Protein 1
Amino acid sequence: MSFENLTIGLIGGGNMARALVRGLLHAGHPAGRIQVADPDPAQLEQVVALHASVGIHADNREVARTADVLVLAVKPQVMADIARQLAAGPRRAGQLILSVAAGITLDSLRGWFGAGTPLVRVMPNQPATIGAGISGLAASATVGEAERQIAQYIASATGQAVWLQDESLMDAVTAVSGSGPAYFYLLMEHMERAAIELGLPADLAAALTRETALGAARLVIETKAEPGRLRAAVTSPGGTTAAALRVFDAANLGAIVRQALAAARDRSAELGRTPAGK
């Protein structure tokens, strides 16, 4: 299926919108077929800096009027007002709508755009801004196979995209991949500080920590090995790694991780039950 004739409209010109524009351009999507609306001229300047032929607009309705696909890339707090504005028209008939706003459920989107509108909810993560993200997708019952392929095409512009059979899993996806980058940043922060306390210069502590994190992630992905198997392979009995892991075990790191992810999942569910402006 060819997507190059699709006009893709983005409502919002912030970081995630620009990541999608960048990814779509990299994938070869015609710049003239990408339209972005944002009331902030500074945001639009950053969009057009990606490619001069990308269409920019101050009025959301100008984009909604012509787009085959509309991507809602705005903050959850303003989603209700913007959705109501767009739903009032003018809007292209049969338009597919994607939302990347955290906590905004398909039910909320149906309430604003109508039960017959094809809707896809997307949960990206921060590495999407460099094309290294992973997004979870959930579709309404009104989304057909062709529309699923279009949503996959757009979401894949910033990394990998995986479909969820049940939207209720989106809260778990949010806990694992949506919030997940922060967990790794936190561990890296503590490793860098500890390395400095061990006497390493700050720049060396940073380089060792960050390259080790990158290398470990690449090794898991490229070898397709289970993380536990790789951990066991590098842990010699009575060695230095074993000494460090014993400290983690004594602090019950596994339980801490489970509690943290459960807290993130529960908060995501709570936000979904009470979206701003509903």
Protein 2
Amino acid sequence: MRRLAYVSGTGSVRIEMDGPSAYVGTASGIRGREWVYTVGYRSLSGITRSARECRLEAAFLDRGAADEMRRVADRDMLNGTPGKLIADGWEQRAYITKSEPSAINDALVKADLTVVLLDGVWRRPHTVQYSPLTVSADGYDFLDLPYDLPYDLGVPSTVSSLTASEWWNSPIKLVIYGTAVNPAIRIGEDWYKVDATVPEGGYMVIDPISRTVTVTDADGNETDVFPKAHRGNGLGSGEYVFEPVQPGTHEVAWDMSYGFDLTWYEEEGEPTWS
């Protein structure tokens, strides 16, 4: 493990755990993977990946860093807001539930940390930006040439593309920037629609990990608009707002009156070795 950090769920405090104030070595405790299943007659059922406990051996060279880690972890537990472990670019929601000192001297404090990994998978985000159309297509404002052509010129195509993981389906997060009225985005054959307005200077977040849909205005006020999100008949219905994208390249289409960021998540059972 080359880089490891914990980012708190409350306040977004980032604590580096690969030095110089705190060090966890190779962090082998967070590696490994496990499937949960029920064994039947020549078959498995109920196959899933659940939350699991693991241990980290941490050395704090700065006692202030040990205090900060404890306070941040305890605040996340009290508030019910899991933080994130970020390991070499891979991330997973997590709680630090326990700390047991194993060595104390003038130079450092060593402790065994109990970490609960909540998601069963590690995710690495990839973000693609899609920009709004910034020219007017009204009348002849879009393109005014000093001569006539034997054909008409139209506005640019509103179809773009997205290439996601080659291995398996990927969750996608959308951040839509205002002003946007009832935003609707098509990715492949699936629509992502919310019957709500994103005000100027604000943004909407469709988060498949937390299963939330929110609008934040220019002053930072957040509104829950989950009831206004289209969910169709669930996965595979064509209008499920949390539908993951399948491997490969897909068309992305919208009316281009607003811009948005699309983050697709690469998923693995553990942080990759290579």
Protein 3
Amino acid sequence: MDNLLRALWTGASGMIAQQTNVDTIADNLANVNTTGFKSEKAEFKSLLYQTLQTKTTTANGNPKPVGAQVGLGVRNCSIDTSFEQGSMQESDSNTDFGISGKGFFAVRQENGEIAYTRNGNFKWALSGNGGMILTSSEGYPVLDTNGNSIQVPAGYQMSSVKFSKDGSLGYMNADNNWVDLGATIGLYQFNNPSGLTKLAGTYFQVSPASGAAQEENTIAQAQRSTLYQGYLESSNVQVADEMVNLIIAQRAYEMNSKAITTSDTMMEEANNLKR
């Protein structure tokens, strides 16, 4: 009977793991049109193994090549984020930016902590000194290469203020010459972006696993990102792949459910033998 109970719990662990897998796939599909969203994938690992027979010797003293161990189920070990490049979608706004490469935009949240994102849907908002400040859709100030907010002082005609191709802020003066305002949109990289902590709204936060954020201009021999003004990076979710993964997860869930019902039937048969 203990063996049959073991099968019940093993099947249950498989169903729980596949439920998390389906949850992850559903989240990917729900965010297929979310700007800057990065798809995720559930990873699994086996649980403990119970030893039924060790690698002993035969009656003649010859060593047995293998023992007998049975697994006790599965569980989710991680949910990995794919940072593959999403496609660029053209935008009508000159404050929309798409990144091609490994870089992230940096914004300062309401609590003062810095978050990182691939969503370059930015807006101009009024600042406290009467000027304008570049913010995310949530109102978080966008940071420049020095970690400061990007602001235009009061008195400038915003229709003449523009960003250059490299993200530098400036304007064309009366002589049609470019005047730099001393701020450039910062792009930051990480040694291990998969270690970033996920926040709501396609934002990420630094963690010990990701390493510290490094502004691209300060990294020697860095593969620098390219900034595209008037474009937004779309989600990197591949709908066809997710639908296939969903079918596989559904079938795996059904098979684990079948293992539970089969074990239950066998236990019922064993109980009937005792009557």
Protein 4
Amino acid sequence: MSFTQQTHHGVTFHTADAFTAAGGVAHGFATRLGGVSTGPYAQLNLGITRPDERAAVRENYHRFCAAIGVDETRLVMTHQVHEDGIRVATAADVLPDLLDPIDYRVDGLVTNTPGLALTIYYADCIPVLLYDPVGKAIAAVHSGWRGTSLGIAPKAVAKMTALYGTRPEDVLAAIGPGIGPCCFETHDDIPTALEDRLGPAVRPFCHPLEQAAGKFTVDLKGIIAWELRQAGLAEEHIDTLPLCTACHPELYWSHRKMGDQRGNHAAMIALEG
């Protein structure tokens, strides 16, 4: 598996080649390029809670949805809280207006309803899209370090299995752009929390910094890929986009580097048909 960076109608985004090859699904991971927002939100801010111009955010959604081929009137979005809640998305979750407040708090969505575009947000935390091309089910999860420690990605696979009969060995996983170990430096509290929940197998993904006592780098994408393998996904069905959101300000916003003066990216996935 690999990813393709492409530009449609001026909007630049990433797609997972295995999803494209399997067919039956529209999806994309946004960059910051191709929208109309200005200032710290330039260009393609898709964060509905950012203090951006509402008209600009609407236009950004219009452009991104058109570029990746999803229906902008059938979005199911998340109000993320860095936990492991996963909601079963239905047509009732589509808001009358995409900027209306969301009355549930989750970091993941699953569905087998064609046309619903599951939408998650990121600006360092890791976006993960899951696709069962055999059973026709999808999931989207936002996996920061807390969500990763709670196993939100494998929990989404388990929910797909319980609800839709998905076999883990059929699932394709795309781990999108997010902060890499090059830039995710922490004190020992995060590696300790990860190991407390996930066990010593996560140690190879947490490296002590020789030049800074008590500090570590953490490879969240590597841990998520390991979690998915433990959940039964085939290694060849898991692909990770290596680009780091903190290293590439020309493509991405980074909460760690920019704080609140930034926009948000979105990742979307929708079953066709």
